[in-house]
């Protein structure tokens, strides 16, 4: 496009009062055109059964100006209508590569439209997602997402607002790493296959207006404001793309602005999202403010939604023709075209020709990707879900043991006065976890532990006692009381290369936030083919049998929601001598494989000392020194087997509190001449299937003792494993009642008891 006589210079402002140059405006127009034609191509592909995703960005193309106002190294978590942003970021990154080292605002903009290759690449990325191509660069055909590690675009699922808590966590991690690296206290970790973000990066997170009503969004805004109020810096730019409607439900007039303006600790910016120059200017101002002050801000963009919610949506069913026509009059493509014409940088005919040219390029790309392969087979689909490299994990534990020796050994004295844990005598389950956490802090420089009451108090049950004093508030800290935000911090810090160990105070509290594990944590490697990881070990106090305290909110045996999450590791240490090795395996698996682990700690066993008789101390165990870590290694997914008695008449399969009860029952049966194998599963996911089948076949009689509920409990998975494994012997299941756990002694009527285990064993032996 050639400037006309009297036109503004391409390298000058495209209009009075703006910092957007003519060249940049031309580039933005191309990015907007690319996004619009991607929407049209998606519907074209869908028309003959070759496209599977038609939620488009039409009307939201103004978000391309937000990308132009940022740096291509600023991590971005994008709304599903941020196609203009993605297209602009692709071109922006190409321009930045050709101008390495130039990081000023306004200079990292898209190039003139003569270089269309980056936009063709962006179109190819998006269209591969639309047709579920196995060659799509981030998810490999598993879902249509905006994501690309080279562009620092972190993939997000399409669930409403669920990515906002993670964005807060990423911002928290960026600033925490910047400060600790500056002081030299914590080495800046490296992500596997990806360099860390620059120290002065900011995170941008876009979402729709209807999303602000979601609990996850409320949690994210509240946490950002809470951090700011507490003096914690959080360089996050939230971008609300407000088109006034969520599918068919209108946002009440003025509600979004009122809600966003009222958020304490979050600075408010607003602009007409259909005006590229206005959006760019305000976005530059907002990004510069966040980058300079390291504080959160929200950019509220007023936009329109064109072409309905998705391809199958019929807007006339819930919108009047006048409303639809009013939105068409604000079309951002037309607005940007008008801006270019008024600046004398293009004629209407040239813009129409450019529209057709970009449309032809996008359609050509769509035709090219049609023949690309799709995912073929369950193994290929699940490959990036939860990689398991047990040899590397074992090697990592051995390496960690070597780092724990020598001068740093004193750091392992946490909670035990001046003695090392191995010198303090046999320890309880709680004390052992405490010592293992301290060792983890020593051997993993990027490990951070946080949660409700974790730091100053040392946890409700004293499990984190002394960690803050030993390792400092930058690595052990208290959070606000919100489980969604706690897990969001874990997701963000893990993504940034740290090793987060968040604590959820009680299992029942997890249910407030479980989608952060299911929809966000467990899906990250799956939807990014390992380009992004969120390694994390979530400590949760749970299960039942607390004496003198409880009710269903503090005695919770609902673990089905955890076992149902693909790829999630669920560990349940029953006794002290397993707790430390299992925790080390979780930490190493997170660090090596990017695993998301849940370390479920039985509250009732935290301070238990005895097994068979008062004062026997049989439930205690010495804390092994680092030299013995390799020999005591507990691989993920391996059970522990106890032989009780000389004969082999019965196999009892259990976990958690059931281990102690079953060992006591087995001892009584041994006095009657009955020999038992007690199998402690230790891992509820993945279940130790080979161990289950082997130990069951050894006796031909299996009693499954499941302290969770009969419906949806762990025992169902054990029985299914036996059936699938070809077990042909006798089997019986003892499980808790399908009930919430009541307060006080009434709990005994719904939970598994030793008497019930004894009766079940004898009934099985009588067959």
Plain-language structure description:
The chain is α/β, with parallel strands linked by helices and 767 residues long. Helix content is 39%, strand content 13%. The chain contains 25 helices and 20 strands. A seven-stranded mixed beta sheet has the order 10-9-11-12-14-13-18. It has a six-stranded parallel beta sheet with strand order 2-1-3-4-8-7, sandwiched between helices. A five-stranded mixed beta sheet has the order 15-17-16-19-20, with helices on both faces. Helix 1 (22-47) packs parallel to helix 4, helix 3 (83-98) runs antiparallel to helix 4 (117-130) and helix 4 crosses helix 11. The N and C termini lie far apart (89 Å).
Structural class: alpha/beta
Number of strands: 20
The major β-sheet equals: 7 strands, mixed
Strand content: 5-15%
Low-confidence stretches: 103-116, 186-195, 406-418
Shape: elongated
Helix content: 25-40%
How much is the radius of gyration in Å?
Answer: 29 Å
How many helices does DSSP assign? Answer: 25
Across the major sheet, the strand order is 10-9-11-12-14-13-18
Could you tell me the mean pLDDT? 90
Which characteristics define this entry?
767 residues; 20 strands; alpha/beta; 7-stranded mixed beta sheet
